[in-house]
Amino acid sequence: MTHQVHIIGGGMAGSEAAWQLARRGIRVRLSEMRGGGDTTAAHNSDGLAELVCSNSFRSDDDEKNAVGLLHYEMRQCDSLLMAAAAKARVPAGSALAVDRDVFSAEVEAALRAQPTLELVRERVDALPSEGLTIVATGPLTAPTLANSIGSATGADSLAFFDAIAPIVYRDSINMDVAWMASRWDKGAEASLAMGGDGRDYINCPMNKEQYLAFREELLAGEKTEFKEWEADTPYFDGCMPVEVMAARGVETLRFGPMKPVGLDNPHWATDEHPNGRWPYAVVQLRQDNKLGTLWNMVGFQTKLKHAEQVRVFRTIPGLENAEFARLGGLHRNTFLNSPTLLDRQLRLKSAPHIRFAGQITGCEGYVESGSVGMLAGLMTAAQVAGREWSPPPRTTALGALLAHITGDAEAENYQPMNVNFGLFPPLHDVKKKARKEAYTERAKAEISGWVSTLA
Ligand SMILES: Cc1cc2nc3c(=O)[nH]c(=O)nc-3n(C[C@H](O)[C@H](O)[C@H](O)COP(=O)(O)OP(=O)(O)OC[C@H]3O[C@@H](n4cnc5c(N)ncnc54)[C@H](O)[C@@H]3O)c2cc1C
């Protein structure tokens, strides 16, 4: 069977993309290296769509939760992953958790039953020079293919190590304590050119006592252990975990990410110092999305356990009530600087016959990866049929995630991202308490119209 579309990688994204194409009668070759003599450092089986770690697709609450809403929208698009999850579901409260073996078997059986799909157990070592292709090889893309992708995109564009700092919702930061400023008021011109007002960072001040106590918390906090296969991976200069820096000396953080110089705190203004004084140490947050709803903690990549991060980081003045859109972490990852390299249809600008899908595009998590695979499949199906593609509305979870990946995220500091309400166009007029429901109601009202445009 000669194929119309070649999909490389039979994980979460590749399996969903293959389903969306094959069920529309399009001939697909799905290449998966596991089962053909290769594996990755995290997979344990040869099954398609293997969940490598947790067995949870997180919250299934589609009224107040962004990932639950993503489940809902995927179901509207007849997602294979959501159908398989329903069959493999195990009790887990409001979370959607599955028996991973049943889940993988369901996905594989559904794909094998498609007459236009050919599943080939083979490793692909280079990006095809022609033919519609979807690359969905995930965070642990085989090194030979990763090199080929690196050559096609520029070596600097493919990150091999994922240093994630926490991201905080802007409206949960206490601005009676924190304040906006750039160090020494530098970069005002560049800021104005970008639509800013020259005060680009949110600064959280600490006095000496607070700084010393905070450092102790970082040192004592419970850490995630490195996996065996990660142990040899060196820390790069730019992604040293904050607790490793803290362990190097009392002052290391004050000369690193918590440097206070050039940052007058106006909340500490006096007659003698009308502009305020420099704090003893400062935690800075930088805008993470164009909407200005998400702010990342600069230099705060960390291996602290998630619950510890919430506890310790809420001791930072101004972040007492911080809500986190994403918590920090550090693991090997292969992902593109998608906002720079991909067009709005996930195509490599320099080689538009190639689409990327799944975690390699810089989304994070099983569900997000599956949903981006689904979108890649739907886009490719439209292309094969010669139909114009209309993207999902920006107000839906699918639309918000896609817009983030393909252009709305800040390209310079692009890091993997879970779906969250901070990616949605804000609803400032709605009271904070009712906002999550308002986001999901708006999305649900708009998704069905868009789904009806899909053939
Ligand atoms: C250690 C670890 C733990 C994780 N834990 C979680 C978690 O608990 N929850 C969560 O939501 N997410 C977790 N993730 C993220 C998760 O892996 C992804 O969200 C999701 O699996 C990505 O889907 P994907 O389809 O992009 O990649 P994958 O699901 O990894 O699929 C990629 C597929 O491509 C194949 N492949 C790779 N290279 C080639 C090649 N050259 N030729 C042919 N086939 C190839 C691989 O064998 C694999 O089957 C974790 C990731 C890692 C690395």
From TrEMBL:
High-level lineage: Bacteria, Pseudomonadati, Pseudomonadota, Alphaproteobacteria, Sphingomonadales
Cell compartment(s), UniProt: Cytoplasm
Database matches in PANTHER family: GLUCOSE INHIBITED DIVISION PROTEIN A, METHYLENETETRAHYDROFOLATE--TRNA-(URACIL-5-)-METHYLTRANSFERASE TRMFO
Cofactor(s), by name: FAD
Residues holding FAD: G9, G10, G11, M12, A13, G14
InterPro entries to which the protein is assigned, alphabetical: FAD/NAD-bd_sf (IPR036188), MnmG-rel (IPR002218), MnmG-rel_CS (IPR020595), MnmG_N (IPR040131), TrmFO (IPR004417)
One function term, GO molecular function aspect: tRNA (uracil(54)-C5)-methyltransferase activity, 5,10-methylenetetrahydrofolate-dependent
Enzyme Commission number: 2.1.1.74
Reactions catalysed, as given in the entry: uridine(54) in tRNA + (6R)-5,10-methylene-5,6,7,8-tetrahydrofolate + NADH + H(+) = 5-methyluridine(54) in tRNA + (6S)-5,6,7,8-tetrahydrofolate + NAD(+); uridine(54) in tRNA + (6R)-5,10-methylene-5,6,7,8-tetrahydrofolate + NADPH + H(+) = 5-methyluridine(54) in tRNA + (6S)-5,6,7,8-tetrahydrofolate + NADP(+)
Family: Belongs to the MnmG family. TrmFO subfamily.
GO cellular component: cytosol
Protein's gene: trmFO
Keywords in alphabetical order: Cytoplasm, FAD, Flavoprotein, Methyltransferase, NAD, NADP, Transferase, tRNA processing
Protein name (Swiss-Prot/TrEMBL): Methylenetetrahydrofolate--tRNA-(uracil-5-)-methyltransferase TrmFO
Biological processes, Gene Ontology terms: tRNA methylation; tRNA wobble uridine modification
PROSITE patterns membership: GIDA_2
Residues annotated as domain MnmG N-terminal: 4-387
Stated role: NAD-binding protein involved in the addition of a carboxymethylaminomethyl (cmnm) group at the wobble position (U34) of certain tRNAs, forming tRNA-cmnm(5)s(2)U34. Catalyzes the folate-dependent formation of 5-methyl-uridine at position 54 (M-5-U54) in all tRNAs.
Organism: Novosphingobium taihuense
